[in-house]
């Protein structure tokens, strides 16, 4: 039984976990964070004390606590599936940061467990769907004013990624955002994916990372998407989405910025990071999730969407390893989605 104010427990309090806690406690109406768990016990226990909230002895303790109505999972990718399944075993609402799991089999298990609960309890952190630019693009595509969509040219560029970052992570952790949002924009399933490795950037890369990468995705309706993932581009956080239609081109611009013309130059800043670029989208995403949980009606990205994205990321990684195009098939979509 959930009271008027949703009591949230957070598992994994690193970069995005910390942001979401601030967001929930200071911006979002109808919810507050009541407890946390993180493997960095000493440090995060101190944080919990400073915030006057509970530090739980394990993720499992937090999930099963009667004082926690809903779970927010912001721990590392590899831990998501297990925590989501544990939350579903307790029939609790859970918001899981992307990716839902690191492979499609684990996502399929989550879908199966949620279907057994008979209703939607999971939302996945695909916040691009709440970005004003993408929402506008969706409306323009659906208006058909520019004819059918033929192809898309997209890019996901980060200034730098660090030494821990590997070639598969470019697909599983980074490209997964485009894979979800483009599926939602086009309302069209993917049928194949091919990973192409262009000339490697030399300065900021290492043996475990081939950067940049290109994914070519084909959809059931014959749309071809060319997606560049470049996680050490050095010049900014640069997100591109160009939709080429029969009689027009639709695209995103970097929001928030003002250009300066001076000394025979015309300068416009580029977003420095994902926190800045998608700040408003995260706020909207969380307010709608809290409203959805309080009304027992989740409408945001589902476990099914997490599964669809992971079928492509899994096949994309296989394509990198094999050097060939991989055809994809989805299982049948259950009626709760
Ligand atoms: P991060 O800074 O490394 O934070 C993750 C935290 O989880 C760390 O404190 C980590 O501790 C902890 N952790 C590791 N294993 C755990 C376990 N078994 N149980 C509980 N906590 C555990 O990473 P981040 O950048 O915040 O990313 C967190 C998640 O959010 C990732 O899945 C990432 O893909 C996703 N994300 C989404 C977006 C988005 O745009 N939607 C943006 C950024 C990140 P250690 O440091 O000791 O491992």
Automatic annotation (TrEMBL):
Class of the enzyme per the UniProt entry, highest EC level: oxidoreductase
Annotated Gfo/Idh/MocA-like oxidoreductase N-terminal domain residues: 6-126
Domain Gfo/Idh/MocA-like oxidoreductase C-terminal residue range list: 138-328
EC number(s) per entry: 1.1.1.18, 1.1.1.369
Domain of life: Bacteria
Keyword Glycoprotein included in the entry's annotation: no
Swiss-Prot/TrEMBL keywords: NAD, Oxidoreductase
Recorded catalytic activity of this chain's protein: myo-inositol + NAD(+) = scyllo-inosose + NADH + H(+); 1D-chiro-inositol + NAD(+) = scyllo-inosine + NADH + H(+)
GO molecular function: inositol 2-dehydrogenase (NAD+) activity
Pathway where it operates: Polyol metabolism; myo-inositol degradation into acetyl-CoA; acetyl-CoA from myo-inositol: step 1/7
Family designation: Belongs to the Gfo/Idh/MocA family.
Oligomer status and interactors: Homotetramer.
Biological role: Involved in the oxidation of myo-inositol (MI) and D-chiro-inositol (DCI) to 2-keto-myo-inositol (2KMI or 2-inosose) and 1-keto-D-chiro-inositol (1KDCI), respectively.
Protein name (record): Inositol 2-dehydrogenase/D-chiro-inositol 3-dehydrogenase
């Amino acid at each position: 039984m959930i009271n008027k104010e949703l009591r949230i427990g957070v598992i994994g309090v690193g970069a995005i976990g910390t942001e979401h806690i601030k967001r929930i406690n200071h911006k979002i109406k109808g919810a507050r964070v009541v407890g946390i768990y993180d493997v960095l016990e000493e440090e995060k226990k101190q944080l919990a004390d400073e915030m006057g909230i509970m530090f739980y002895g394990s993720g499992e303790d937090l999930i099963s606590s009667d004082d926690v109505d809903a779970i927010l999972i912001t721990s590392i990718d590899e831990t998501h599936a297990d925590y989501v399944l544990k939350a579903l075993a307790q029939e609790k609402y859970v918001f899981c940061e992307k990716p839902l799991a690191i492979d499609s089999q684990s996502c399929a298990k989550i879908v199966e467990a949620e279907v057994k609960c008979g209703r939607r309890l999971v939302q996945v952190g695909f916040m691009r769907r709440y970005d004003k630019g993408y929402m506008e693009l969706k409306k323009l595509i659906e208006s058909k004013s520019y004819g059918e969509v033929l192809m898309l040219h997209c890019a996901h560029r980060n200034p730098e990624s660090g030494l821990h970052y590997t070639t598969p992570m470019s697909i599983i952790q980074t490209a997964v955002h485009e894979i979800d949002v483009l599926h939602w924009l086009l309302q069209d399933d993917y049928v194949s994916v091919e990973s192409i490795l262009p000339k490697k950037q030399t300065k900021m890369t290492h043996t475990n990372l081939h950067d940049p990468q290109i994914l070519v995705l084909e959809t059931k309706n014959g749309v071809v998407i060319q997606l560049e993932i470049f996680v050490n581009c050095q010049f900014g956080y640069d997100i591109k989405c160009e939709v080429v239609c029969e009689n027009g081109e639709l695209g995103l611009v970097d929001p928030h910025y003002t250009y300066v013309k001076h000394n025979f130059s015309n300068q416009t800043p580029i977003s420095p990071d994902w926190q800045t670029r998608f700040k408003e989208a995260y706020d909207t995403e969380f307010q709608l999730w809290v409203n959805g949980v309080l009304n027992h009606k989740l409408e945001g990205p589902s476990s099914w969407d997490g599964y669809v994205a992971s079928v492509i990321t899994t096949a994309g990684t296989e394509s990198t390893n094999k050097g060939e195009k991989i055809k994809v098939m989805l299982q049948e979509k259950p009626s709760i989605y």
